[in-house]
Queue: 4 jobs
Job 1
Amino acid sequence: MGSVMIVGVGGQGTLLASRILGAVYTGAGFDVKVSEVHGMSQRGGSVVTYVRYGDRVASPIIEKGGADIILAFEKLEALRYFEYLKKGGKIIVNTQETDPMPVITGAAVYPENILEKLSAAGVAVTAVDALSLAREAGNQKAVNVVLIGVLAASSDIPEADWIAAVKSTVPEKLQEINLKAFALGYSHKNKEE
């Protein structure tokens, strides 16, 4: 049984990322359950998606301490949800900072040293400047597929199967950019914090 928790903010493409994961794990012969459990579709709202796979999966829900991997599209979201990671799990985090509404309105301050705080808590962190890689691929919205590429590189599933999942999930007109984004993420030299 495996579990991936995707955390981000509305508008970052977490749902597409979960669909790619669902396609690759289904293609690998697993029973897969995907659920966008809570979140706001408006830009800026926190969004959480669960992907669980295994021989037989009863529920998509991931409890605290149950995620093998957290794919965080933004640093504050990684900090907010790291307690869902199981012991020995890993967080793959985009180093981008997206100010939540309380920071925008001046009611709060964006926390400093998030990656250091996660590492100090004993969390294995792979930090990626996914926004720069997505821009290099040709579209800053491809951050999600860059992060999927980073995750895929540490997976036992062959790269070709991940590429097939991206192709089957992403609209044809966007495939070239997304395949490039995937390749850039896949070849990223994982920088452990």
Job 2
Amino acid sequence: MASLRNPPRGALRIVWKAHKIIWKFSGRRLGTRSMGMGVIELTTRGSRTGSARTVLLSCLDSPDGLVVAGTNAGLDQDPAWVQNLRVDPRAELATKAGGQLVTAEFLAGADHDDVWARFQAADDQYSRYATMLTRPVPIVRFGVRGDGGSP
């Protein structure tokens, strides 16, 4: 049975869409925090279509850039944005402070484990995902790009 901390996927989709609408129409002034973490708007290119794909994600700060975790709300498949970044690591990030072109770096080893532990410490939902998933959770760090190209 679903709880408030574990709503059914359909309810999550409604919440995600509402969050995106609030984010957009407030000019990124509202909806900038979720689960005690910052929120970013990530725009990637679809791995099959090449079309721009935008999603809001919770993030953590790191000394080398913002980091996100590809939990896909506990589903045992990577989220589409992860696949998009594997095909083309160039993306655009927007925060309440503005936008910037970035390059995605998938973390591995101790770097991955350290950041994944930080996500679990930030919100217990991530610890729950850790017990549910049989796949490794991709952790992505974004570094600023200097090429001026499109995402």
Job 3
Amino acid sequence: MTRHLVTLLWRALALASLALGVLGVFLPGLPTVPFLLVSAWAGSHGWERLERWLLNHPRHGADIRRWRERGAVPRRAKWASSIMMVLSAAIMLMLAIPLWAKVSAPLFMAAVAVWLWRRPEH
């Protein structure tokens, strides 16, 4: 692959992640910051201007910098993620879906929650 094509692919990933992050501002249940983290990471490989903009963003820049520096997740984000996972699991239990999905998805969400709550906060 040529260098130009690789740069275009990094930019496409950065832009797609940014778009999903922006949607997350308006759609409950769709996270914003994880997509911005991916966007900044992809931007660091092919779109330095976008990366700088995200790192200096007045609302989300601090969260992105904290994650990069220490792998830190703010407590409010931990609570929001945990609540959304519990709600998602509850909805899944009420749906007519296979038993394996009703069991495996909540177990996976529980593992994610344990990992998330073990992350530093500051």
Job 4
Amino acid sequence: MEVTLIEKEQIGEHKVIAAPENKVKELHAKLLDAQRLGNEFKSKVSLTFNTEDGPMRVETTVWSLTEKYVQIKSGVLIPLTAMIAVDF
């Protein structure tokens, strides 16, 4: 699977869709850790998510995590159902 690296400002240019496999439960602990890293240490993480154009990856700071979304800088929301991987 080829993943395209994009800037966080480009996320809105792509239609985010659900990942082929729902990994919400599997990734929840990593997303909580990513949120803590972002809030306490301003550390960036790599988020891979699914779009109509194929998997995309963004290096960013996670600001918050809700039941349905990961929020990154500038109020950009990525649905949890679209998440493929979280890497530190």
